[in-house]
Amino acid sequence: MKLIDGKQIAAEIKEELKQKISELKSSGKNVPGLVTILVGNNPASEVYVRNKGKACEEIGMRSKSEKLSADISEKELLDLVEKYNHDKDYHGILVQLPLPKHINEDKVIEAISPKKDVDGFHPMSIGNLVIGKETFVSCTPAGIQELLIRYGVETKGKHVVVLGRSNIVGKPIANIMLQKKEGANSVVTVCHSAAKNLADYTRQADILIAAIGQPKFVKADMVKEGVVVIDVGINRIEDATKPKGYRLVGDVDFDDVASKALMMTPVPGGVGLMTIAMLMKNTYKAYLLYGE
Q1: pTM of structure
Q2: Which of 72, 73, 158, 223 is 20 to 30 A from 266 (CA-CA)?
Q3: Average pLDDT of the segment spanning 264-290
Q4: Which whole number is the average pLDDT over 114-126?
Q5: Annotation marks residue 119 as catalytic
Q6: What domains appear along the chain, each with residue ranges and CATH number?
Q7: Of the residues 96, 116, 158, 231, which is catalytic?
Q8: Catalytic residue from among 5, 14, 116, 119
Q9: 96 is catalytic
Q10: Catalytic residue from among 52, 171, 281, 285
């Protein structure tokens, strides 16, 4: 079984972007910029935002973090988004989710200019993805496709089974993989909790993408020999032997499934690390398409 190393591919992508941004600087041009907006004190969100800022710094991209109190009004947040919609120094706007309950997330996402929607969550971006037009694709699904391409996984005509139908991973990756394009052109099945027997579907998968948030859910008897497994799950389970008292596992029972898989992503070290790399790539793309 070959390991699909998300850490290595994410580092390669960031290095490629670093070179391109260095060339922009050398020629005296403006560089891509990303602004992140964080509302409240969610510790996980604070870590994500900090990591995004760090990645920008590593590759030479301009970045700014707006940290707002949890009791900010919806109008104040919308006004701030609108301000950055018109700020030529920032080509990508990312509002870190979740937001406090008094703020309508859909309204905030829709307020971001589609030209700066580097998270790929705007309805226009999603609509363009479905019909196969050039667009910003949400970062985790884009990262999954990037891993498959860079590891030379044949996708044309292959049966991709997606476990999960979230708007963040399941639905977009299904739409990515069925497009008539390189690194896609697959036959796609989307499974979810309403399926009577998920294993009937997962055993048919040439490529299995697990994104259901259930630790070690997929076992060896649920896959066929030679399957390529992309595990999107990040679940904490108790482990007294670890300093923090827990460890991270995926939606796939790695040790059980590894004996049958051709290739697999580990957790951690797989898909998760690709998300920020693809955010950087989307921001660079926004700069090329709509920047100065």
Answers
A1: 0.95
A2: 158
A3: 96
A4: 97
A5: yes
A6: 28-114 (3.40.50.10860), 139-272 (3.40.50.720)
A7: 96
A8: 119
A9: yes
A10: 52
| Count of positions (residues) in the chain | 292
| Whether the bond into 215 is cis, omega within 30 of 0 | no
Q: Is the pLDDT confidence value at 67 over 90?
A: yes
Q: pLDDT tens, 17-35?
A: 999 999 999 999 999 999 9
Q: Note the pLDDT of residue 171.
A: 97
Which strands make up the sheet holding 33-39, listed edge to edge?
62-68, 33-39, 92-95
Alpha-carbon distance 242 to 249, whole Å? Answer: 13
Q: How confident is the model at residue 246 (pLDDT cuts 50, 70, 90)?
A: confident
In which band, very low, low, confident or very high, does the pLDDT at 292 lie, cut at 50, 70 and 90? Answer: low
Question: Structure tokens of 52?
Answer: 């995004």
Q: How far is Cα 60 from Cα 18, in angstroms, rounded to an integer? A: 6
Torsion angle of C-alpha atoms 286, 287, 290, 292, degrees rounded to 10: 170
* CA dihedral for 267, 154, 123, 163, sign (positive or negative): negative
